[in-house]
Specification:
This protein has helices at about 55-70, 100-105, 110-130, 180-185, 190-205, 215-225, 235-245, 255-265, 275-280, 290-295, 415-420, and strands spanning about 10, 15-25, 25-35, 40-45, 75-80, 90, 135, 145, 150, 160, 170-175, 350, 365, 410-415, 425-430, 440-445, 455, 460-465, 480-485, 490, 495, 510, 515, 525-530, 535, 540-545, 555-560, 570-580. By secondary structure, it is of the alpha+beta class. The protein has 3 domains: about 10-95 and about 285-295, Phosphorylase Kinase, domain 1 (2-Layer Sandwich); about 100-280, Transferase(Phosphotransferase), domain 1 (Orthogonal Bundle); about 350-580, no CATH class. Strands 17, 19, 22, 23, 25, 26, 27 and 28 form an 8-stranded mixed beta sheet that branches. Strands 1-2-3-4-6-5 form a 6-stranded antiparallel beta sheet. A 4-stranded antiparallel beta sheet has the order 12-16-18-24, with no helix packed on it. Helix 3 runs antiparallel to helix 5. The two termini are about 25 Å apart. Residues about 155-170 and about 315-395 have low confidence and may be disordered.
């Protein structure tokens, strides 16, 4: 529990803020007090991503899921604001550590305590599944240990149990080490995948070690698919049950009811001495503004204006207002899930010339190569009959742009630890011009979109906001992206010179592509570095792009509007990414 900062509001809706509880990819979480005196946990979406419709769609889905699943094993929804910024949801506050934090502080659980916890979590899953929902991100950090028993939290990527097929190739939901093999291999998500995560979570609880080891995402995911879970030192009967839960074949895993039966518990988890110690050693929680101030959690002078009249926004029959790209996953008050037309992407977005984000709202991994249908490097989607506008060219763009000028554009990772942890940085850009429409763009790691750094391949994505609302396809507007490493590169070695010099050219560039390529559905043009990039030094000479690992540090990606020739282009936006540790 942390002190409120000067920039934090005094209230969210009608709820008085008492402290900070933590932060995640989606935003900040506060401890609040409702007008009637009830403690609530309030999640507020980060300002930087409120302009991204699909991020809001994921947040709305979380609200719907929490509202639909009224279980003793989840924190119930109290209130939410979904129509205007700031977007937030408030759930009942549960005092207690996460399972991950408890094991980290107290060490592994004894076998008998772990068996009782396993039975309680299996019962929680059975309850959630009964509502037609799969959690899809069960892990130690998403289990709260309350005095009455464990609660499941963070339903941000939950789906209807029948909605198992994901439509976006290459991405899988979940957290490395807890995501089932069938999800990693073919994005097939079902109740059995939650059982796999349950087994992996218990393995951590009883060993205190990551269930499939640590290291890069791809290495952990490879072990999930091909190697055994780490159960060294675990009591044999419990180890066998966990091993069955994490069977590679989902059809071979027991269901939650069988797990409960095999645990054969004879006493309540809430009466288990080890569990009681875990839940009793919690930080004192202020009950009102006066006690929060006395505890130093609300700084002096932090305002507390008169609250507005209280009117819950998510009462019975509430139907959220739709946003572009948003498709509800639950009918109002219905416990079962409808099919979702498009999978929510976890790529963050920024307005042109603003701060670059490399952050997600969950964790995603991929073991599949991006297929050839992605937009990167596929050329223009312009219609030959489209008429030109003042901001577009009527002729076809050149096949490349020349690396023929000095570029002092430079992206650097933020020096603020909280921002750096999410891959947030700033661009110092010289000579940029304004785009004719609001430009959105972002960068993430192809293999781990939620990572704050890029390990192997970077995905650069951009579009004009709300291009899908055009009456007819606009004249083509060609865009190329220049990606440059931190230092000048020796073409013979593909690495920086022995005496490192700052890179002052446009670097490796992509083939110009019409930004309206996906105009009908408002989609984003996607490019992958290094696959879609080369350095064009002349009309007859070009060099291949280098691997990012050749030059760790802050890489810059500049978005160029390309006109009539390889030398006729101008910068309209800038972002970047960190290679190596942040």
């Amino acid at each position: 529990m942390d002190v409120l900062k000067a920039q934090d509001p005094a209230r969210i809706g009608a709820h008085t803020l008492l402290a900070r509880l933590g932060a995640g990819g989606m935003g900040q979480v506060y401890l609040g007090r409702s007008p009637g005196g009830r403690l609530v946990a309030i999640k507020v979406i980060r300002d930087e991503i409120v302009d991204h419709p699909e991020a809001l769609a994921r947040f709305r889905r979380e609200v719907e899921t929490v509202r639909a699943v009224r279980s003793a094993y989840t924190a119930n929804l109290i209130d939410a604001s979904l129509d205007t910024a700031p977007y937030w949801l408030a759930t009942e506050y549960v005092a207690g550590p996460t399972l991950g934090g408890a094991v980290r502080e107290r060490g592994p659980m004894p076998s008998d305590s772990a068996r009782r916890l396993l039975a309680a979590l299996a019962e929680a899953l059975a309850s959630v599944h009964a509502y037609g929902v799969t959690h899809r991100d069960l892990k130690p950090q998403n289990v709260i240990l309350s005095p009455q028993g464990p609660l499941l939290i963070d339903f941000g990527i939950a789906r209807g149990a029948a909605d198992t097929a994901l439509t976006q190739t290459g991405l899988a939901p979940g957290t490395p080490g807890y995501t089932a093999p069938e999800v990693l291999i073919s994005n097939q998500v079902g109740a059995a995948a939650d059982v796999f995560a349950l087994g992996a979570t218990l393995a951590y609880a009883v060993t205190g070690r990551p269930p499939f080891g640590s290291g890069p995402t791809h290495a952990v995911s490879y072990r999930v698919v091909h190697e055994d879970i780490d159960l060294g030192g675990v009591e044999p009967e419990l180890a066998e049950l966990i091993q069955d839960c994490v069977a590679k074949d989902p059809d071979q895993r027991p269901g939650p009811a069988e797990v409960i039966a095999r645990c054969a518990v004879t006493s309540a988890l809430a009466e288990d001495p080890f569990y009681v110690r875990l839940t009793s050693d919690v930080e004192a929680v202020p009950q009102d503004l006066q006690s929060a101030r006395a505890a130093g959690l609300v700084p002096p002078g932090h305002g507390a204006p008169t609250p507005p009249a209280y009117a819950p926004t998510v009462g019975p029959g509430y139907v959220p207002t739709a946003l572009p790209g948003y498709v509800p996953t639950h009918a109002p008050l219905a416990p079962t899930a409808a099919s979702e037309q498009r999978r929510s992407r976890r790529t963050p977005w920024i307005v042109a010339l603003a701060v670059a984000l490399v952050v997600g709202t969950g964790t995603a991994v991929t073991l599949k190569v991006l297929d050839g249908n992605r937009a990167g490097g596929t050329g223009s989607g312009a219609s030959p009959s489209a008429s030109p506008t003042a901001s577009a060219v009527s002729q076809k763009a050149p096949e490349y742009i020349l690396n023929d000028r000095v570029s002092r554009d430079r992206w650097t990772l933020s020096t603020e630890p909280a921002d750096a942890a999410h891959g947030i940085g700033k661009c110092a850009q010289i000579g940029a011009v304004s785009a004719p429409k609001e430009l959105q763009y972002g960068v993430d790691d192809v293999d781990d979109p939620d990572s704050p750094t890029v390990a192997d391949r970077a995905r650069i994505t951009f579009r004009f906001k709300y291009a899908e609302l055009e009456d007819k396809k606009p004249a083509p507007y060609y865009v190329s992206v220049g990606v440059k490493p931190p230092h000048e590169i020796d073409a013979d070695t593909g690495k920086p010179y022995a005496v490192m010099m700052e890179s002052k050219n446009i670097g490796y560039t992509s083939k110009p592509v019409d930004i309206y390529e996906h105009w009908k559905d408002g989609g984003f043009v996607e490019l992958t570095y290094p696959d879609d990039f080369r350095s064009h030094l002349s009309a007859v000479k070009s060099d291949p792009s280098i691997p990012v690992v050749n030059d760790p540090g802050d890489w810059t990606a500049v978005i160029y509007h390309v006109k009539s020739s390889p030398t006729d282009y101008e910068s309209i936006g800038c972002t970047g990414f960190r290679v190596g540790n942040s």
